[in-house]
Amino acid sequence: METAQKLNDTAQTNPAARMAQEPETMNQRIPYPERTIGKPLCDDPKMSMRNVDVFYGDSQAIYGVDLDIGKNEVIALIGPSGCGKSTFLRCLNRMNDTIDICKVKGSFMLEQDNIYDPKLDVVELRARVGMVFQKPNPFPKSIYENVAYGPRLHGLANKKFELDEIVENSLRKAGLWDEVKDRLDQPGTGLSGGQQQRLCIARSIAVSPEVVLMDEPCSALDPIATAKIEELIDELSGQYTIAIVTHSMQQAARVSQRTAYFHLGRLIEVNDTNTVFTAPEHALTEAYITGRFG
Question: Is the dihedral angle over the CA atoms 148, 152, 156, 158 positive or is it negative?
Fold first, then answer.
């Protein structure tokens, strides 16, 4: 509350922030930066994206984005609806390949691998870069089979006891084992919404990904389930690189080390999360976090 009040007070005395009080003329009054403000690049990236443009048919959704995601970092992608943050996230494991009219340009590197190399096995890529969606989507299978499906598909376990171990470890990492260990043969769809989302996280990490992408994973959950997911993100960050899209600025502040602000397809600012929410370097970022639009 104090941070929000401080930002609101700053907006009253900052001319650039005052211009953002009129959303319909904001884009004309506050120019986009020539390049992303802050720290879009890092010294030890897990993923590196350069000159990213995305089109849906003739409409451009992403404009010239450069961004690094550091190893074992949690980075939050924020911005108003339609700003391109989910589109960008889906590029990171080629989920946009499933959309016929979507065209992606630019460089996407997962360490030394070009993830858009035509020779790359996309199934293997999506094992290395997992995805957790906005709405929990467990398979119409048992809890056990939801988690076991990926390891079995990728040949990660040759014997039943190996698969049992992967399932248990994944459910433990997802904070779900103690709640479901006595009903692993029951349908995953019978769990509560929060439990289903943790089951989907367990399913994602069961194939030992290097990166986990989360597209608004808590938007359909109640506050208690949301708190559990946020605790889980903090625990998982020690083993995985995590990129999360969220509409909740409070959530971004709680779970991430760096925050990237998107606005109408452009990456305006990337900085340490504390900097973004207490001392943003661009007027569009400040206008968004102080509630002038969004």
Answer: positive
Residue-level length of the chain: 294
The helix/strand/coil state of 49 is strand
To 10 degrees, the CA torsion angle through 3, 269, 101, 216?
-30
What tokens appear for 12 in the block?
Answer: 């009253």
At 210-265, the pLDDT tens digits run 999 999 999 989 899 999 999 999 999 999 999 999 999 999 999 999 999 999 99
Is the pTM above the cut of 0.85?
yes
CA 205 from centre of chain:
15
CA distance 142 to 272: 41
Give the single-character DSSP code of 215. Answer: E
Residues 6 or more apart in contact with residue 39 via CB below 8 angstroms: 258, 270, 271, 272
| Rounded-to-integer distance, Cα 49 and Cα 115, Å | 10
CA dihedral (55, 66, 132, 90) in degrees, to 10, reads 10
CA of 27: how far to CAs of 137, 173, 195, 216, 293, in Å? 37, 44, 41, 26, 11
